[in-house]
Design a protein that fits this description.
The chain has ten helices and eight strands. The longest helix has 19 residues. The protein is an alpha/beta fold and 281 residues long. The chain is 44% helix and 13% strand. Strand 2, helix 4 and strand 3 form a beta-alpha-beta unit. The strands form two sheets. A six-stranded mixed sheet has the order 3-2-1-4-6-5, sandwiched between helices. The radius of gyration is 20 Å and the shape is globular.
Length: 281
Amino acid sequence: MNILEMEPYQKVERSIITKYRHGIWNPFIEAVKRYELIQEGDKIAVCISGGKDSMLMAKLIQILLRISETPFEAVFLVMDPGYNELNRKKIESNAELLHIPITIFETNIFEVANNTDRNPCFLCAKMRRGHLYKKAKELGCNKIALGHHFNDVIETTLMAMFYSSQLQAMIPKLHSQNFEGMELIRPLYCVHEDDILAWRRYNDLDFIQCACRFTENNAAHEDGGDSKRQEIKLLIQRLRKDNPILEKSLFNSIHSVCLNTFPGYKIGHERHSFLENYDAE
C-alpha cells in the first residue's frame, strides 16, 4: 500500500517497523525474548495511562499479537483514577486514532491520594497497582504490562542510591505478592526514551504528560516538571557529554552485580553481611 493511502494508525505502525526498527522494535523484541516476558497462553492486561510510553507499548504488543508464533492474548486496559475531562478525552481520541481497542474502568484514586497527609505520590502508585492487578485478574489475565523504559531503569537505580541509601534496580518482571498467579512485565525495558520521543514527534502524536491532580501544574512540561527524577535525568545528560556510553554502562552494571564485593545486601526483607561467609572462604 502506498504510504499516501495509509490511515494514520498504519503510518504509525509502519514507522515502528521501518524508521524506528533499530531504536524501538528490535529493543522491544530483545526484552521480550531475553527476559521471557511473554509465554504461550498468556493473557496480558496492557496498562495504558495515556502517556507516550504506555501508548507505544500498546501499539508494539498489538503488532506482536499479529505476527508472533507464540499465541497469546491481550486486553488494552485504561484505568481512570479521576482524570479531568480533557485528559480523559485525549486518551480516548488517541486510542481511536491508533486503533487500540481500550477497556476503561473508573476508580477514585486521585480523590483519595490527594486528600491524605501521607505521601500522595506513594499512595497513588500503590493504589494504581492494586486496582490494575484486581481488574486484570477479573478479566482473566495472568499478567499486567507497564510502560517503564530503559531510562526509567537506570534513573530508578541512581535515585535509590542517592536518596534511599540502597542499591536497588527495577527488574523486567516480577510476581505479585498480593495477587496469586499474577505477574508484572515491562516490555519497554530495553527501549530508550529518546527513541520514544523521536517516534512521537515523527508521527506528530500528542499524548497526555502528567495527568495527576497533585502535579497538574507540571503537565505542560515534557520532562515532567521539577522532581528528584528530573534531577537525575539532568545529571545523566551532563555526564553523558564526557562519557557517551554512560547509560549503557549503568544498564549493564545491574546485570553484573558482584555480591562478594559488598559488605551487606538484602534478599527480600532479610539482611546479610559479608561476615557470614568471610572465614569460610
